Amino acid sequence: MSEQWLEEVKWTEDGLAPVIAQQHDSGRVVMFAWMNRESLALTAAEGYATYWSRSRQRLWRKGEESGHRQKVIDIQLDCDADVILLKIDQQGGIACHTGRESCFYRSLEQEQWVCKEPVLKDPQHIYK
């Protein structure tokens, strides 16, 4: 199988591309992460999101510890070919390691970040 489609992505100097994960039915952005060629190829082949963890310097299958996997509905590339959008079905309804639906749960109000989203599940119960 040809992997020419991977070469069409404009990767950063360190071989990464930014990825936005969006809940397919609501349009809610739940996460931002990074992918390299291998993680994008695995995501396309397996149908579940695999990212590149910059902190761990390894592939990271979303949900490998929490069980909150992301089933991929669609993979899109922006007009400049340098940002990937995953339309996903967030299993378990929690994308954030803080136990929230989305990693974007704080809003700027009067020069302060204010938490706007509840914790759906205590992270200590998610991660053993």
What is the number of helices? 3
Unreliable stretches covering 5 or more consecutive residues: none
Strand proportion, as a percent range, falls in: 35-45%
Q: Which overall shape is indicated by the principal axes computed on the Cα atoms?
A: globular
Helix content: 10-25%
Number of domains: 1
What number is the mean pLDDT?
95
Number of β-strand runs: 8
Order of helices and strands: HEEHEEEEEEH
Rounded to the nearest angstrom, the distance between the terminal CA atoms is 39 Å
Instruction: Please give the order of strands in the largest beta sheet.
Output: 2-1-6-5
CATH topology: Ubiquitin-like (UB roll)
Assigned CATH architecture: Roll
* Name of the CATH first level: Alpha Beta
Q: Kindly name the structural category.
A: alpha+beta
For this structure, what is the CATH homologous superfamily?
Phosphoribosyl-AMP cyclohydrolase
Largest sheet: 4 strands, mixed
